[in-house]
Amino acid sequence: MQTSVTPDAISAVLSNPSFDSSSDRPDIVVQVVDLKPIGNRYTFSANDGKTKVKAMFTASLTPEIISGNIQNLGLIRLLDFTVNDISSKSTKYFLVNKCEAVAPALDSEIDLESKSEEEGGEFKRQKLEHSPVNDVKTDVSTGITLKPKQEFVAKSASQIISEQRGNAAPAARMAMTRRVHPLVSLNPYQGSWTIKVRVTNKGPMRNYRNARGEGCVFNVELTDEEGTQIQATMFNDAARKFYDRFQLGKVYFISRGSLKLANKQFKTVQNDYEMTLNENSEVEEASNEEMFVPETKFNFVPIEELGLYVNQKELIDLIGVVQSVSPTISIRRRTDNEMIPKRDITLADESKKTVVVSLWNDLATGIGQELLDMADKSPVIAIKSLKVGDFQGVSLSTISRSNVVINPESPEAKKLKSWYDSEGKETSMSSIGSGMSPSAKNGAWSMYTDRVLLSHITSNPSLGEEKPAFFSTRGYISFIKPDQTMWYQACKTCNKKVTEAIDAGYWCEGCQKKDEECSLRYIMVVKVSDSTGEAWFSSFNDEAEKIIGCSADELNKLRSEGGEVNEFQTKLKEATWSSHIFRISVTQNEYNGEKRQRVTVKGVAPVDFAAETRLLLQDISKKSK
Amino acid sequence: MDTSSPSAFVNGALLRRYIGQKVRTVVQVIGSDMGSVVGKSTDDLQIFVKGSPPASTTTYLEVIGIAESENSIRAETWTNFGISFDALNYNELCKLANGEFKHLFI
């Protein structure tokens, strides 16, 4: 059996374009790499050890591949092929009409280049532990996957059978009858397929109720050996049937599911499609499989870069050293008043920043407790799928499908641990949030970088068109219209608007209950001026309280008192012509068919004159440069 | 406004430019006795302030008076500036008021 390729065969063919048919050429032997199905055909790269060229088998050869005669990493002799141009590019590809298999799959890609340099052109089959591609992928700076992405190895059914050595596991049945498809090749128009995937995330069973009745649903995230992910959803009977079958981390053969375009709004994995499994779908555990399928794939964001993701839909993955773990507390969810356990943990990473991650529900009570018990050992944890919010500047929250791994076996985790042990634990860290936004409570403002003058806002009518734009600005309250609607009647529990009940008291739609009393909460507009212009700012309760200097209830009392010296008017007068630092958001609102800028106060702080002076000095030195 | 007797903003290093003239500066009090105060200027130089200081001084003290030498002032006006004062900002102000923006100051 021939065990090597024809040296320099590809470059010889490519450099001699007069050979338009292979009849004039000697037979050449190449290695098949990157074998992939495209529709009913297969593409691959022909490798002669030095040069690789894209190639495609004609459809008539498809049975050869399915039967396992032609294998990925195997050698084939090209008997009849043509050299074609890829129209859009200047590269060429081979269209293989006829070939014969010379050798089954080798251990790795043949690479004569590096070896021939060392051994003076002696051609030897390489048995590289890693392909060059692999080595690049493990480069730390990319830091994307927990494990290096494996070269995809297309396996024919017969290969799988031979791997399993006739072990008659139930899982083998499907593999025997059907080829295992890579996830990337699935599409809605494809007939039957079998995929082999690891469950890298499993959501809880959820009950829903809609116009068509009620039911239950859960979903899993599946990852194949190429690292491609897809979300699969099961409803009702299928959900009940498969909920216990799917276990996190295990490998399954799955077939007879249907694909549809993924809903971008709820998309959580990188795939254009999502999968629905019904009760006729087949899910069998691949219990005897040794084949590598990646663990949960992470895409870590360093803590110092979290600011970019604040309030975005995109979920992020994080790795960090546990600094502290709080006890659990119960939080009442606004939408349904349900009590939910929550636990805050603080993580740090090499950017010397810390961030608070809120673990919710089972993660708070389960893995959260585990973390509390081992917090003094500073474990490294990796968390998949976190939402980034702006509470305290930047804060992270788990969602139902978040996944926490303690002390993961990964290069990132090792690097982080050794950094922490060697220098990290001695280093003073700062919270990422402190530099991002006002901590409205103590009035300290540390972020002056997005300071603008009012003219910047009023002269840019398109500001906030795509997404809210945030700024800080310093200005004077120049006018508070005394006859505006300054407040609303709010529920004392949830702060939502209440309506006066027919008999007495107030009805809260949010809490679904009646209360004897309500409280007033501000919702007012104030005019703010600086040296460049003026603008109306909308302000809600907490911020308005700081501007006015008393609560809405108190102000209402003053107004109702009336009298000769109207305390209400005095209060508003006192609030006018005082200066504040405002944190504002600028958005676009449609009002009577007309787009309007809306400036909302997100925070108010007193002016720190020393800090303001420093800012002015900075501006002066910038201008004089 | 009385502009007949302007007082220039100075720090320790700028004092020498105004010997015999009226200046104002803020110092951090290091020590004081009956007839003088030893202070640290905002640029970390030692300044002797002569005259009759107030009975009690706070950490920071503004003095207005005639510069007698490159490190002493005979003060006419003494004002306590409290315990929290941004010396760095004041120092920058002195530099700007005697440099690039001198024309804005009397």
From TrEMBL, chain A:
> What GO CC terms are in its UniProt record?
nucleus
Which Pfam family name is an example for this entry?
Answer: DUF223
Location of the protein in the cell: Nucleus
- Which keywords describe this protein according to UniProt? DNA damage, DNA recombination, DNA repair, DNA replication, DNA-binding, Metal-binding, Nucleus, Zinc, Zinc-finger
Domain (Replication factor-A protein 1 N-terminal) spans 5-103
Q: Name one GO molecular function term.
A: DNA binding
Q: Which GO terms describe its biological process?
A: DNA recombination; DNA repair; DNA replication
Give residue ranges for domain Replication factor A C-terminal.
Answer: 470-616
Which CDD domains does the record cross-reference, listed alphabetically?
Answer: RPA1_DBD_A, RPA1_DBD_B, RPA1_DBD_C, RPA1N
The Replication protein A 70 kDa DNA-binding subunit B/D first OB fold domain, residue ranges: 181-285
Using the record's annotation, list all stretches that form the Replication protein A OB domain. 310-407
Domain of life, per lineage: Eukaryota
As for what it does, the entry says: Component of the replication protein A complex (RPA) required for DNA recombination, repair and replication. The activity of RPA is mediated by single-stranded DNA binding and protein interactions. Probably involved in repair of double-strand DNA breaks (DSBs) induced by genotoxic stresses.
Q: What's the family?
A: Belongs to the replication factor A protein 1 family.
> What quaternary arrangement does the UniProt entry report?
Heterotrimer of RPA1, RPA2 and RPA3 (canonical replication protein A complex).
* Name this polypeptide is given: Replication protein A subunit
The organism is Eutrema salsugineum
Automatic annotation (TrEMBL), chain B:
- Which keywords does the record carry? Nucleus
> What does the UniProt entry say about where the protein is found?
Nucleus
Gene Ontology MF terms in the entry:
DNA binding
Question: What does UniProt give as GO cellular component?
Answer: nuclear lumen
Keyword Nucleus (UniProt)? yes
What's one GO BP annotation on this UniProt entry? DNA recombination
Family under the similarity heading: Belongs to the replication factor A protein 3 family.
Q: What is this protein called?
A: Replication protein A 14 kDa subunit B
Q: Which species is this UniProt entry from?
A: Eutrema salsugineum
